[in-house]
Design a protein that fits this description.
The structure is a homodimer of 203-residue chains. In chain A, 75% of the residues lie in helices and 0% in strands. Chain A is mostly helical and 203 residues long. Chains A and B meet through helix 6, helix 7, helix 8 and helix 9 of A and helix 6, helix 7, helix 8 and helix 9 of B. Chain A binds a DNA duplex (18 and 18 nucleotides) through helix 3.
Chain lengths: 203, 203
DNA sequence: GTCTATAACTCGATAGAC
DNA sequence: GTCTATCGAGTTATAGAC
């Protein structure tokens, strides 16, 4: 559980971090190995010592995202809010902030890869799915905690999946339009839905 | 209004159609000009006679999508159903069918491009946005037609944008997981939302 | 408008010394 | 584990005859 894979070298870590950033900013295919090497100040021999191929580097990036999901995305939101519903919206607000910080240019890195990578990359698709599943599990914790305020028989897993759907769809439109409005709209309609669920749960 | 741009040649049409299909199946960047030429049985001189660059070809593809949106996506759904709400879900059911037909490998071509193309392609982004806007407008017609059954003050534009959000987010997850379930879940939760809106509109 | 040939370059990946 | 040099293939795009 504690030992991850290998004693990591700083070179390897730098490669993964630079690749992560470039794949996010420009996409996987448009990012060349040469650019990664340049910005990481690493030579090609070192990269191919750690990663047999570019796809293996992407796999490492996705593994890192999976490791960082809790500490970077979920935990800060959960620490800011204690109410389970507000925790969900705090997570969504994190994406709003990151959209803004990137000037509406960068969305969810996992969602980007989910659509950029055609299905000839099974390990990539598996890791994208694992990232989604971990995200949904975190939200599902909140929905579970809300259970007695929601209508009887509400399917927490389905609702959590829906929250991910709304986040990803909203981020996509915000990027496409170059404005935050579609994302904020999506979040606000989602909140309206939750309010109606809660109102029904009371009655 | 009727004359589009130019008297079109069959070669040009074949190039656009093959490019459209390949960009959808494999993505824009992984698709090489050589592959397009091969499958369209066209030589490079002809391609560059019509399109100064690969990006211009993509622009033509996106213009074609915009032209085909009504006849291929919206009209068939609207013809199948007359109730405005059912029309919305008939459009969504079209995406479900196309997901299935592609074996969960191909989602929404516009959504794919929205996330694959970084923002260094202004014409592409504009056309992606135009496609989204046309899609939302079609759905908004339905929401407008529902107005008197919805709670007072419901923002039809916001609801239509939310429907697109849910479609795109659902398609993304379906592709990522390789199963229709996340999409069907998204649509069914969206229906639950509409039912609650309608119930509130009655009261 | 279509043809062939190819320029000019970048790509991912490798070899082999250190 | 890191270095330099480079391979071979594939890339977008062009030249120029027909």
């Amino acid at each position: 559980m504690s030992v991850k894979t290998q004693p990591r070298s700083p070179t390897r870590a730098r490669l993964v971090e630079v690749a992560r950033r470039l794949f996010h900013e420009r996409g996987y295919h448009p990012t060349g190995i040469a650019q990664i090497l340049r910005e990481a100040e690493v030579n090609s021999g070192s990269l191919y010592h750690f990663f047999p191929s570019k796809e293996d580097l992407l796999v490492a990036v996705l593994e890192k995202y999976r490791e960082l999901l809790r500490p970077m995305v979920i935990d800060p939101a959960f620490e800011r809010e204690s109410d389970p519903l507000e925790r969900v919206f705090a997570v969504l607000d994190g994406y709003r902030k990151r959209l803004l910080e990137s000037n509406l240019k960068e969305g969810c890195p996992i969602g980007n890869l989910a659509l950029e990578m055609s299905d000839e990359h099974p390990r990539v698709r598996r890791l994208v799915a694992e990232n989604f599943t971990a995200w949904r599990a975190a939200v599902e914790e909140c929905i579970d905690a809300l259970a007695d305020r929601l209508p009887e028989g509400t399917n927490a897993e389905a609702v959590a999946g829906f929250v991910l759907t709304v986040m990803e769809g909203g981020v996509m439109q915000a990027r496409a339009y170059g404005t935050l409005e579609p994302y904020e709209n999506a979040v606000s309609v989602l909140r309206d839905y939750f309010e109606r669920l809660l109102a029904d749960g009371e009655g």
